């Protein structure tokens, strides 16, 4: 049975899933996924589990590589969109199931590699989610997590919040001292320690710069507000006039950033943690 909290989380992601699939999945996230699965050593024929998969930013590149992929997500709509994308590409080696990553309905020691891209980092009980990844991975197998780095080095979020603050004086934004769930493991040493505590060895945290491109302020607005329920909540108190003003400010910022040469590039600090399950 899905808990009340899990049900709320599921509904929140269902609410943005269509736009998430439209604006977020088919972007530079696929490029980042290729980097992650390469570092993890994923190869054709391997059994791979993608937890908190969304509509396939990580699992689709893995399936294109020839891996046997199971993607799980708490949102039924996300899984519907993932299956639709797999069908469109003829990827019969990619399956999707609705599942709470805190309680995976999967056998121990099943997968060669298990990973999550911008997924498990969002879990209310991060350590539980990570422990589940480790549990279902075979001894000697690999577990990896792709996560945001420090909030100060996530440009899209800082630019977006800055635009809201310019349009709506008094808007507080996010505090680095009390960051939201996406940044609970943003420091390299914290991520490494958490992975080691979960029973992984030879843990290595690979810092990379993830580059997002936006051709307009409207495109950035669509991407950010579709990327996470936190962003949806952030703008929930804005009226239409304020929202339009934020988009106008974002247009100016993107034009300034691109210097007239589309697209504008915003850098995101990302940490890819990789570890081996003890045999």
Automatic annotation (TrEMBL):
SUPFAM superfamilies assigned: S-adenosyl-L-methionine-dependent methyltransferases
InterPro entries: Methyltransf_11 (IPR013216), SAM-dependent_MTases_sf (IPR029063)
Coiled coil stretches, renumbered: none
CDD domains tied to this protein: AdoMet_MTases
Methyltransferase type domain segment(s): 49-144
Alphabetically ordered keywords of this record: Methyltransferase, Transferase
A single GO molecular function term of this UniProt record: S-adenosylmethionine-dependent methyltransferase activity
GO biological process, one term: methylation
Pfam families assigned: Methyltransf_11
Name of this protein: Methyltransferase domain-containing protein
Organism: Cerina litoralis
Classification of source organism: Bacteria, Pseudomonadati, Bacteroidota, Flavobacteriia, Flavobacteriales
